[in-house]
Structures are given as C-alpha cells and as structure tokens.
Design goal:
Length: 99
C-alpha cells in the first residue's frame, strides 16, 4: 500500500503554504510515491560494509581566502529596507500562527 496519499500531499501543501489544485495533488501523490519507493530501494542496497558518501569523488575547498574589506554602515544596510526601527529591520511576526 502506498505511503503517500492525496490527504498527506494536501496536508504538506498546507504546512508549506502552497495552494495546490486537485490535479496537482494527484500528480504530486504519484511522483512522491515513486520517490519514496526509490529511497526504500536504495536503503535495501546500502549495507554496513559500504561507506556512506555524499559524492562519488572527493571534493576540495575552492573558496578564496577571507580578506577583511569595507563593511556597510548601519545606514547603508537599512537604506532599502521597507521598514526599519531602532537600527534593525522590522518584519511581521510569524511565530504563533496556526498551521
């Protein structure tokens, strides 16, 4: 039986604040079900003797060295802000909202 149901996709859409049409819910239900099935197949193949990797080849850090440069002044940082107060960006509260 599928783990992904249309009700679950609808609930995930509400949690992520994405309005989904019925057609999108049906399409995403199938797509997410395939993804979950493929992850389960990979989990079956993974064994303790195979080390976990994030990339097939080793990666090297390609960042440049940090150099101290000129920093923005408070006025420059806030000049394009839609709303600022007491030297800080002012944004609407999001905590405590119903999900």
């Amino acid at each position: 039986m599928s783990e992904i149901t249309p009700d679950l996709v609808r609930h995930l859409g509400v949690l992520s604040r994405i309005q989904l049409s019925d057609e999108e819910i049906e399409r995403l239900t199938g797509q997410l079900d395939v993804i979950v099935d493929n992850i389960a197949k990979v989990s079956q193949v993974a064994t303790p003797d195979v080390p976990a990797t994030s990339h097939p080849i080793p990666l090297e850090n390609v960042y440049r060295a940090d150099e101290v440069g000129a920093a923005l002044t408070l006025a420059q940082a806030l000049q394009n802000a839609p709303d600022a107060a007491d030297g800080r960006f002012r944004v609407t509260a999001i905590l405590g909202e119903e999900q």
